[in-house]
Structure formats: C-alpha cells, structure tokens
Design a protein that fits this description.
Oligomer: single chain
CATH superfamily of the largest domain: Periplasmic binding protein-like II
Distance between the termini: 45 Å
Helix content: 25-40%
Largest sheet: 6 strands, mixed
Structural class: alpha/beta
Number of domains: 2
Length: 341
C-alpha cells in the first residue's frame, strides 16, 4: 500500500513516531512584527489544532512549534512520515513529484503548497564503480519497480545520466529483500538511501563503497524541489487562514535555523520521534544535511522535470494532474511578506 510502504521505503528506515503538545522553548528567535508586511496581518486561524507530518531532514518543522503557537495554534502534533490520506496529518511533507504522482493515482485529494528544500537522497555504489555511468551491466536489487519504491528515484537519476534503466541495468525486484543489507554484504551493486538512512550508512564500518550521486550537491537535483508541503484538500478548503499561518510558522523557523540543528533534534528525539534518543546522532546528521531555501524553489519546474523522466522510464504519470494540484498563492504571498533582515 502506498501510504506505509512509500514513506518507509523512501525514508530508508526512518522510524515514524508522534509528538503531541508544546515546546517550552525554541533555539530560534521570534521574528519581529516589523519584519512582516502589513498584508501579513491575518484573522485568527479557523482551527487551533494542527497536525504536520515530516521527515528527519525537515528541521524547520521540528522547530516550528513556537512559531505555530504565535500563529494561534494551541494543539500541535508533529508526526513522522505519512500522507494526508491517512487522516493522521493535515499538512505533510512528500518526497517530491514521485509521492505526488503516486498519491494522485491512488485518489488522494491533495493541494501542493510549497517546497521546503532539495532532498537528501544519495546513491552509493560498490568499490570499483566510479560513477553512475559505471552502473551499466550491474545488478541493483529493489523491492519493487514502481512509483512506490526507491526504484523510481534510481531510475530517473540513471536516465538523466544517459543510462536506460530497463536495458542497461539489471534491476531485480524482490519484495522481501533488504537492499541495504544486500549492499553491505556485497550482493547489491548500488543502493538508494536518504535522511537517517544516509547518515547511518556513512557511519557504518561495513560500508566499503562510496557515493555516486548526492542530491544535496549534484546539479540539477540540488536546485529542484524534493521535499514538498502538501495539505489535505478538504482541510485546506475549510482552513485557508490556518494553512497560511502554518506555512508562515514553518518558513519563519526555516529563516532562523542555525547550521547545526542539534537542539531541535534533541527535542523531537527525546519525545520518541524518529527512533528516539538512541537515534539522535543519525537524526542530527539528517537534519543538518540540507538548507531550507524555500524562496528559491520552483515546484512547477520540478514537477515537469521529474515527470518527463518518470515517463521516459515507463513509470507513467500525468504531469498535468500534478500541476493542477498545485496552489502557489500562499507561498507567493509569504515570499513578499516575510523579511529576514
């Protein structure tokens, strides 16, 4: 099923959890009223309850609770990766156009609101494989060859590098396989990891390979939306002011986050999110991987870019349907309203 399998598959082992309540303090300063344009003054939110789902790389959401309180929310729930279709989140982070396309195909009613940052996906390969092009003739084990599996990202990256994933690479689909374990055992020539999965692989002494693709660093991926904020359509229509206030809180947190997000990671892991305190180091590494350049990202460009590649590799998606799900009114207003200096 898309909901559980996709968020766990792309999360590469992210442990889902729940945070409920308030943070007593935030390591980020509050934005001053003078830093908001007059048009930013809004009515109270239609609801004072908000539920937001995110990944360990989404530090601005981890840090947003104080800002959400300032925006009028009194009951705040931060949950681990899920979709708006589960009923567990009003706003959720989706892994780029792949998540959006798969959700729409399954009938999810969503509104695509804004990008938060490029993604933290990596592709690692065994010693002797110097680049993506050197994966020609190699074997890569995945659980499935669908939009609901990391195969989709592997396929589009290879296709962009000039490799036909259907002809040039031996993709083996094994539903019960653990591609990462097989990679560490030398039985899988390359593996996709992201977020805490990437951090854990870097620190694993059994890993003898190296990175052949880094979404944070490699062009054009580093300039594309990967982690995208999506709202449940019904919730968005009923709560337009609450939606804008929630996004404003997240973007305010993004604007003032320090390079090291250790404090907010401590807060969420202490509450049991993403594997809890025992996984603090990996979550901290994941939260520090990306910058939140939300002002610079172009969702429609990213959807068209990924959509073309997904269709090229045989994972049929409707780019038009994805574009129709996008509503950029709020993010455009916030780009004009929020000031960081």
């Amino acid at each position: 099923m898309f909901t559980r399998r996709r968020v766990l598959g792309y999360g590469a082992g992210i442990a889902a959890g729940l945070v409920v309540g308030r943070l007593s303090a935030s390591p980020f300063p509050s934005i001053r009223a003078s830093q908001l344009a007059p048009s930013a003054q809004l009515p109270p939110p239609e609801t004072t309850t908000i539920r937001i789902a995110h990944f360990p790389c989404d530090a601005p959401i981890m840090a947003a609770e104080r800002y959400l309180q300032q925006e009028g929310f009194t009951t705040i729930q931060l949950v681990g990766p899920t979709t708006v279709a589960t009923g567990r989140a009003d706003i959720a982070m989706y892994f780029g156009p792949m998540d959006i396309a798969a959700g729409l195909q399954e009938g999810q009613r969503m509104v695509v609101l804004a990008g938060l940052h490029p993604g933290c996906a990596e592709i690692w390969a065994q010693p002797g494989i110097g680049s993506l092009r050197d994966l020609r003739g190699r074997t890569i084990v995945v659980r499935a060859k669908t939009l609901s599996d990391p195969y989709a990202y592997l396929a589009v990256v290879l296709r962009h590098a000039g490799i036909d994933p259907a002809r040039d690479v031996n993709f083996v689909a094994q539903p019960d396989a653990n591609p990462l374990t097989l990679y560490l055992e030398g039985k899988n020539d390359a593996v996709y990891v992201a977020s805490v999965g990437a951090a854990a692989l870097r620190a694993n002494p059994a890993n003898k390979g190296h990175i052949v693709h880094d979404m944070v660093m490699d062009d054009p991926w580093a300039k594309l939306d990967c982690c995208i904020l999506v709202a449940a359509q019904e919730w968005y229509r009923a709560h337009p002011v609450a939606t804008k206030r929630a996004l404003r809180a997240i973007f305010r947190a993004a604007d003032f986050q320090p390079p090291d997000r250790a404090d907010v990671v401590q807060l969420v892991t202490d509450r049991g999110l993403f594997g809890g305190p025992s996984n603090y180091s990996n979550v901290r590494a994941a939260a520090n991987m990306v910058s939140s350049n939300w002002r610079d990202l172009d969702i429609e460009r990213s959807i068209r870019f990924f959509g073309q590649l997904l269709n090229d590799v045989g994972l049929r998606v409707s780019v038009d349907d994805m574009i129709r799900a996008v509503d950029l009114r709020i993010v455009r207003e916030l780009r004009a309203e929020l000031r960081t200096s």
